[in-house]
Write a structure and sequence with these properties.
Elements: H1 2-15, E1 21-24, E2 37-40, H2 47-60, H3 74-84, H4 91-98, H5 100-109, E3 117-120, H6 123-133, E4 137-141, E5 151-153, H7 159-170, E6 179-183, E7 189-197, E8 200-211, E9 219-225, H8 230-245, E10 250-259, E11 262-269, H9 277-285, H10 289-297, E12 311-317, E13 323-330, E14 338-343, E15 350-351, H11 360-363, E16 366-372, H12 375-386, E17 389-395
Parallel strand pairs: 1-2
Antiparallel strand pairs: 3-6, 4-5, 4-6, 7-8, 7-10, 8-9, 9-12, 10-11, 12-16, 13-15, 13-17, 14-16
């Protein structure tokens, strides 16, 4: 299951230190060994239902803290913590993280380097905003995650299709259906993994990213180097962004682009990073971010002392085309540096790439994780591991391009 594949290590880490009681949207399965109790809430974004579940657990146990690593639950969980009198960021600060337009305004107010951004509600407004900002521009939903609905338009002829692509994705959000038209930040992308306790932020690691070619922004690989020289360069901007949003507690995943070598903030996610990045940080530095998130939720000082210095890299496996998975084979070669080879798709599964109307979750087959003394060696080991993997997909028929992107 994908939840276990990407968050299992987080729950395992927290459960090693704490008794965990879970509020979940479905009956627990793989989580059972790590939890003491649970309450099922079909829709955890339903604040009344979530608060009732929290009260039920508070009646059963002396709760010390509440934490989530699910993007769409951040605001409801912050409100739940306030309702239960537990330590947490204010709902207003978390809402600022979730609303990209509000975040841009706060960055501008506090002098944090970001991107020009305009909120629009119609294609005509998007066209006007793009003309004013200047091409290329990026269009994205105001409240989404995982690069869903994010697309680049390089010229006015591409704007109508790009707007429709972002608008469709925005329509699936219960928080905001607005679309942002933004300045394209041209440069390499990184994320900064930060821990904030009682208003003081520690920058733990920087994650270098490999993203797909335009017009989409699929994340294909991540690498964490404990000795990355970029850490000192991006740390001040990441800390400034967290302060601007009013974040005082928890783990944050700050996305940055380096434009002419200078950091510009893309967004701040007020949670643990996805795509196994917290696991990469642990492999590379020894710092346990899920445990830190749990400690801070209980108002305890986390241990952020590095105990390792190496490189860890993940390669996310996608098919070349949308279609049906007909062959998936890894020859079993598992050298010590191949920390994990995980596949969460089965033969017969239908894979749908974002370019064909899907998203990373409908397309991804699995991932490989390698460790090494240097980033170059980690990348070489990824290529070696890929050589032992074979994948075949029967293309969907008929194939479909990005919807009207180039109309």
């Amino acid at each position: 299951m994908e939840a276990e594949a990407y968050r299992g290590s987080c729950l395992e880490s927290v459960a090693a230190a704490y008794d965990v009681v879970l509020i979940t949207s479905e009956e627990p399965s793989w989580e059972v060994p790590y939890i003491r109790d649970c309450v099922v809430v079909p829709d955890p974004t339903d604040q009344a239902a979530l608060s009732a579940a929290g009260r039920t657990l508070a009646d059963r146990y002396p709760l010390a803290g509440v934490v989530t690593w699910t993007e769409y639950y951040l605001v409801p969980v912050a409100r739940l913590a306030r309702h239960l009198g537990l330590p947490a960021n204010t709902p207003e600060a978390v809402q600022a993280c979730r609303n990209k337009s509000a975040a841009r305004s706060l960055f501008a107010r506090h002098g944090v380097p970001s991107a020009a951004s305009v909120t629009v509600r119609t294609r005509a407004e998007a066209q006007t905003a793009a003309d004013r900002i200047g091409y290329p521009v990026v269009l994205k939903p105001a409240a989404h995650a995982a690069s869903l609905g994010v697309i680049r338009a390089d010229e006015p002829e591409q704007l109508p299709g790009a707007y429709e692509f972002a608008h469709r994705a925005a329509g699936g959000s219960s928080e905001s259906r607005s679309v942002l038209v933004e300045e394209y930040l041209d440069g390499p992308e990184v994320s900064v993994e930060c821990v904030t306790h009682r208003g003081e932020t520690t920058v733990v690691a920087v994650t270098r990213k490999t993203v797909s070619a335009p017009p989409l922004f699929e994340e294909l690989a991540h690498a964490v180097d404990a000795a990355d020289p970029l850490l000192d360069e991006v740390a001040p901007a990441a800390k400034a962004a967290i302060r601007a949003l009013g974040i005082t507690a928890g783990v944050s995943h700050v996305e940055i682009r380096l434009v002419d070598g200078r950091p510009r903030i893309v967004e701040v996610n007020g949670r643990l990073a996805g795509d196994m990045i917290s696991h990469l940080v642990h492999l590379a530095t020894g710092v346990d971010l899920p445990r830190a998130a749990a400690d801070i939720a209980c108002d305890l000082t986390p241990d952020l002392t590095p105990t390792r210095s190496s490189v860890a890299m993940i390669h996310l496996i996608y098919p070349d085309t949308s279609g049906t998975l007909t062959h998936l084979h890894h020859d079993g070669t598992h050298p010590p540096w191949l920390e994990r080879a995980h596949f969460h798709r089965a033969l017969g599964d239908r894979l749908l790439l974002p370019a064909d109307g899907g998203d990373p979750f409908t397309a991804r087959i699995g991932y490989l994780i390698t460790t090494a003394p240097t980033a170059t060696a980690a990348a070489t080991r990824i290529e070696t591991a890929l050589g032992h993997l074979s994948v075949r997909v029967e293309p969907a028929s008929p194939a479909r391009d990005l919807p009207d992107t180039h109309a």
